Structure formats: structure tokens, C-alpha cells
């Protein structure tokens, strides 16, 4: 009943939209009750259409009234063609084109009914291009003409650019214009439309003249047979006015071919539960077509399937719905992908900005680091220059002392035996000098270690500069390495501080040695005064200058071990020569 209700609603919708409901609603309702064989009461009809808040002319609308009082009472005991003709009469005058058409009003009515059958189940009603192609193909085949696929493709492209499909009146104009039936006369087109109408609307699966054998008189009479999904009706002629009988089909029926006999050819037999019918076709081809059509109909009844054209329409609709669902799913996925892509773009933009900010910070830090390094280098350069000047002055003093030592060597050799006690003092001074040399060696070792540490620090600075020049992809790894190296640098700085402490301890030892040396020098001076008093000598060798020593960043200046050994060898050689 749901499918029947939908078919009725399409025709009623055309009539409903063509009428002024306030003035003609009662006419439509009365006519519907009449053609649908629905009992109606004129008094109740007037009551329904009164001007209040519940009637069909109220804000609630006509459709609830139609469903409740008419469609719910509809049975299948009405003439569908008469129903459609009534609805057509109400809407055709207002909507049918005034321009001349190549088809008659009757053919236009049949096209309108076919439109209601093939249209989509949504309002306003339209027929989609796929169904238009199906209908035009059916009409073209019924006319015996060739189908022009390329022509329809061009028409379909032009149609798709503007809308989803055609209305019933546009479909009538399309078929009536003769665009797809060029070269065919009006009668041929009319017969083709009628054939398609019989198949799609009246469920006529096959029809034609054949001979039937009577059950009582056993004579053969020509009849017009009409095959429908569950019945075969036969008439005196094809005008269907004088019906002679029906052959009711069900799943238990069967059809068999018979051999020629009694002068009749192309015989076949239809067996039903209560009767058997002998029929003679005009030729073998017609015989085979009828046998196959009847057998197909019986098979469909056995499995409970609808007629082929209705099943094909349902499959086309399901296919369109499936394609539409797939298209909607694809559009949804595309929207999701687009949204995801936009989110990714935003994330990438955020990451890019973060990287730019990080790069700016890194550049600023690098600039500060380079500036600090330049300042350290300048400071180291100044310290090195100062150290060179101090060393040069010390070398000049050493050269002067060496010259004075050469002058007094001869005097020392002459007085060596007289001043044995002075020799002991000199031995003490020598021991003090050895202690001083030990301290100086310790200072030299500390200076070498400090130089090595500074070289290692400079190497780490160079590695940091190289690390900064690497690609952004390795930046994180290099940052980790930089942290490790900074930790190592901190360890080295701690070691450097330890060396500073050791240097201070060496300085303290140096001060102690210096005090011992001054004590030895005082002893030597007392002996010098005694010798000068007795011997009349002008000067003796002195332990060294009383001037303050030059101090560098790493402690008192000192000779290297090689220079001291060379001077000691030279002094011993001169001493041996004088002896």
C-alpha cells in the first residue's frame, strides 16, 4: 500500500498545485473520492472545508487531510487510468504548452503518466537524465528507429549545466518537439508512446493476435491476447472493448509447445490448475516469444518478484541512490581532508614561526658569543704583549747580571780559599736557587697545563662555531653536543681554578724560597763587608737585585729549564778554565 500511495500522491500533487485550494479544494476532494471508490459524505465534506484552524484550508495544510480522509481508505479496486485522467484534466489546461506539438493530447497524457512512474520520489517532481534516456530509448525502439546516443549526450550535457532534471511539462515538450524522433510521422510516434505506456503503466508484458481453441465447441477463434504479470486476458479485437475471458496465472502454471495437428501450426499449451488452453501463434517466432514471455511471468510469480520494468526501475533508483551516497561520502571525505589540510597548514605555519623565532634567538646568542670571543681574544693579545715586554726586560736584566758575573769570576777564584765560610753561604744560596728552580719548574708545568687547557678551550670554541653552521635538521643534536661541551668547559674551568689554586700555593712556596734567598744574601753581605775590610776589594758577587720581581698572570717570570742548564754549563766551563 505504501508504493500505491506514493504513485497516487504524484498525480494528486500535479492537480493540487494547479488549483486554487480555497475555491477548488472541495472539487478535488470530491473527484478523488469518486475515482478512487472511497465512500464520502457531502455533509462531512462541507464540514471539512469550513474556515477554522483544523480544515484543509488552514495553516495545517491539505496533505494531512488528504492522508487521513482519502488515501488511508483507498483499496486497489479502482481504475488507475481513470484516476490519472482526472488529475490530468485538472492540471493540463494550466501547465500544458500552448505551442503546437507533434503528439496528440492523448499521447501527452500518456507521457505525463509515464513521467509520474519514472520521476524521483521528491517534490517538486522531476525526471533525472538517466530516466529520460531510458524512456527515449524505449520509444525509439518501439518506433523501430536507431538510438542516437551522441545526440542525447550533447543534450544531457546542456541539461546538467542548468538543473537536475525535467518537469512533466518539459518532458512533454521534449518528446512533442520531435527532437529525438526526426523522420517519423505522428502515427508512428503515437503507437510507440502507446506501447511504452502499456508496458510501464498498464503492466502489459506482451500482446497480439492468436487463435484459441474453445472448451465447449472446440472451434478455433482469433483473439487479441494481453499478457500481464498475473493474468492473460483475451478480447475480440485490439480495441479491448469486448473481453472474452481471462487466464489466471500463478506459480503452478506451465506452458508447453505442441506438435502441429488438425491443420493447425505453431501450437502451444497453457496448463493451469482448473483449465488447459490450446493456442496457435501466427508463426514459429511468435510462438517462441509467447512461450518465453509466459514462462518468464510464471517464474516471476513463483519467486514473488515484481514485473521486469518495475524491478529495473527500482534497481536504477537504488544505483542512483548508491552513487549519490558514494558521492556524498566522497565530498564528506574531501571536506575532512581539506579541514585536516588546513589544520596541518596552520600547524606548519606555527612551527615555521617557532623555528624563525628560535633561529632569531640563536643568531642573537651567536652574535653575543662572537662578541665575547672577540673581547677575550683582544684581552689575551694585550696580556701576551705585556708578557713579552716583561720577558724582554727580564732577559736584559739577566744579560746584565751575566756580564757582572763575568767580571767577578776572576776575583771569586782568587778569594775562594780564603773564604771557606763564604763558600758555605754560597752553598746555601745555591740550595735556595735550586729550590727556586724547582718552584719555577712547577710554575712552568702549571703554565704548560694552563696553556693546554686554553688551547682545548679555543678548540671547543672553534667546534661550537662549526656546530652553529650546520643545517636546521641537525640543530637539536648539535644543541645537545653543545650542552655536553659546555659541561666539559665548566669542568675545564673548574680544573683551571684548581690550577690557579696550585699556582698560588707555588707562589707561597716561591715567597718562602725568596725569604731564604734574602737570608742567604744578607749572610753573603756580612762576609763581603769583612772581606772588604781586610782585603780592600771593591765589590763581591751579590745574590741578585733587590728590585721587586715582575709578576705575570701566571706568577713570577722564570727561565726555561733548557736556558738554565745552558747557563750552568757555561759557568762551570769558565770556572774550570780559570782553575
Q: What is the helix tally?
A: 15
Strand-pairing-aware structural class: alpha+beta
Please bin the fraction of helical residues. 55-70%
Form type: rod-shaped
What is the H/E string?
Answer: HHHHHHHHHHEEEEEEEHHHHEEH
Walkthrough of the structure:
Among the domains are: 201 residues, no CATH class; 101 residues, PH-domain like, CATH 2.30.29; 94 residues. The strands form two sheets. It has a seven-stranded antiparallel sheet, covered by helices on one side. Strand 3 and strand 4 form a beta hairpin. It has 15 helices and nine strands. With 579 residues, the protein is α+β, with helices and mostly antiparallel strands. Helix 1 packs parallel to helix 5, helix 2 packs antiparallel against helix 5 and helix 6 packs parallel to helix 10. GO terms for molecular function: DNA binding. The SWAP complex consists of NPM1, NCL, PARP1 and SWAP70. Keywords: Cell membrane, Cell projection, Coiled coil, Cytoplasm, DNA-binding, Membrane, Nucleus, Phosphoprotein. One of its GO terms (cellular component) is plasma membrane. This is Switch-associated protein 70.
Amino acid at each position: 500500500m505504501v508504493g500505491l500511495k506514493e504513485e497516487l500522491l504524484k498525480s494528486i500533487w500535479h492537480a493540487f498545485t494547479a488549483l486554487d485550494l480555497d475555491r477548488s479544494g472541495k472539487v478535488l476532494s470530491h473527484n478523488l473520492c469518486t475515482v478512487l471508490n472511497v465512500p464520502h459524505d457531502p455533509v462531512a465534506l462541507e464540514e471539512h472545508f469550513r474556515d477554522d484552524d483544523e480544515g484543509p484550508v488552514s495553516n495545517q495544510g491539505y496533505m494531512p487531510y488528504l492522508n487521513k480522509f482519502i488515501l488511508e481508505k483507498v483499496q486497489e479496486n479502482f481504475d488507475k487510468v481513470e484516476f490519472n485522467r482526472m488529475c490530468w484534466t485538472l492540471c493540463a489546461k494550466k501547465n500544458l504548452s500552448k505551442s503546437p506539438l507533434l503528439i496528440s493530447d492523448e499521447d501527452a497524457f500518456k507521457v505525463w503518466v509515464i513521467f509520474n512512474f519514472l520521476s524521483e520520489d521528491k517534490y517538486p517532481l522531476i525526471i533525472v537524465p538517466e530516466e529520460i534516456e531510458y524512456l527515449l530509448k524505449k520509444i525509439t525502439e518501439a518506433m523501430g528507429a536507431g538510438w542516437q546516443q551522441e545526440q542525447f549526450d550533447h543534450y544531457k550535457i546542456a541539461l546538467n549545466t542548468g538543473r537536475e532534471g525535467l518537469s512533466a511539462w518539459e518532458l512533454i515538450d521534449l518528446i512533442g518537439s520531435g527532437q529525438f524522433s526526426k523522420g517519423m510521422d505522428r502515427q508512428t510516434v503515437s503507437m510507440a508512446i502507446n506501447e511504452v505506456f502499456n508496458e510501464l503503466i498498464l503492466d502489459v508484458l506482451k500482446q497480439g493476435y492468436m487463435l484459441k481453441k474453445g472448451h465447449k465447441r472446440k472451434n478455433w477463434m482469433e483473439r487479441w491476447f494481453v499478457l500481464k504479470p498475473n493474468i492473460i486476458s483475451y478480447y475480440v479485437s485490439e480495441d479491448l472493448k469486448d473481453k472474452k475471458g481471462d487466464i489466471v496465472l500463478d506459480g503452478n502454471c506451465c506452458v508447453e509447445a505442441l506438435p502441429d495437428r488438425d491443420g493447425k501450426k505453431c501450437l502451444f499449451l497453457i496448463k493451469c490448475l482448473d483449465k488447459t488452453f490450446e493456442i496457435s501463434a501466427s508463426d514459429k517466432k511468435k510462438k517462441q516469444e509467447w512461450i518465453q514471455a509466459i514462462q518468464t511471468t510464471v517464474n516471476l510469480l513463483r519467486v514473488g518478484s515484481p514485473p521486469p520494468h518495475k524491478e529495473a526501475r527500482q534497481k536504477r533508483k537504488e544505483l542512483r541512490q548508491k552513487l549519490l551516497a558514494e558521492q556524498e561520502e566522497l565530498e564528506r571525505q574531501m571536506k575532512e581532508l581539506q579541514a585536516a589540510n588546513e589544520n596541518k597548514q596552520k600547524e606548519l605555519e606555527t612551527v615555521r614561526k617557532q623555528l624563525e623565532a628560535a633561529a632569531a634567538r640563536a643568531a642573537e646568542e651567536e652574535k653575543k658569543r662572537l662578541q665575547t670571543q672577540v673581547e677575550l681574544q683582544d684581552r689575551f693579545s694585550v696580556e701576551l704583549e705585556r708578557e713579552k715586554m716583561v720577558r724582554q726586560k727580564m732577559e736584559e736584566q739577566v744579560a746584565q747580571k751575566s756580564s757582572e758575573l763575568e767580571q767577578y769570576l776572576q776575583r771569586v777564584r782568587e778569594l775562594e780559599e780564603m773564604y771557606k765560610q763564604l763558600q758555605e753561604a754560597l752553598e746555601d744560596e745555591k740550595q735556595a736557587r735550586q729550590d727556586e728552580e724547582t718552584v719555577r719548574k712547577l710554575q712552568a708545568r702549571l703554565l704548560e697545563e694552563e696553556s693546554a687547557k686554553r688551547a682545548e678551550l679555543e678548540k671547543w670554541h672553534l667546534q661550537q662555531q662549526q656546530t652553529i653552521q650546520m643545517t636546521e635538521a641537525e640543530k637539536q643534536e648539535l644543541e645537545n653536543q653543545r650542552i655536553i661541551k659546555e659541561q666539559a668547559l665548566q669542568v675545564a674551568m673548574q680544573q683551571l681554578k684548581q690550577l690557579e689554586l696550585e699556582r698560588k700555593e707555588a707562589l707561597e712556596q716561591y715567597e718562602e724560597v725568596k725569604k731564604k734567598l734574602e737570608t742567604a744574601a744578607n749572610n753573603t753581605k756580612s762576609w763581603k763587608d769583612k772581606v772588604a775590610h781586610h782585603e780592600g776589594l771593591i765589590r763581591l758577587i751579590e745574590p741578585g737585585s733587590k728590585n721587586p720581581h715582575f709578576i705575570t698572570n701566571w706568577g713570577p717570570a722564570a727561565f726555561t729549564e733548557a736556558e738554565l742548564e745552558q747557563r750552568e754549563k757555561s759557568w762551570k766551563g769558565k770556572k774550570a778554565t780559570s782553575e
